[in-house]
Design goal:
116 residues; 4-stranded antiparallel sheet; globular; mainly beta; 7-stranded mixed sheet
Length: 116
Amino acid sequence: QVQLVESGGGSVQPGEALTLSCKGSGITLGQYAVGWFRQAPGKEREGISCLSIKDDYTYYTDSVKGRFTISRVPRTNTVYLQMSDVRLEDTAIYYCNALKDGNTYWGQGTQVTISS
């Protein structure tokens, strides 16, 4: 059974940093394209970052470019999203995703709240 479990969410102030983790079980994340999505209250889920299977391509949506970094550690089967200089508008539920050959898997999400 494939599971993606996100962790690391919480409540921080604007300008601070936060690192989200997504650990896979029943799946080898190093063999998948991985990504982070988020869904803010009243808004649709949006893709904010992705990493290709070979780690040779990364994507960031404009609103997080230069502030967020996606990475993975195959040894621990974990994908990370390093968030820095967070803003109020980064408040959302963050989901990790793994995709390969049309098969896609989602985690349950972790809440990130930015408030002053």
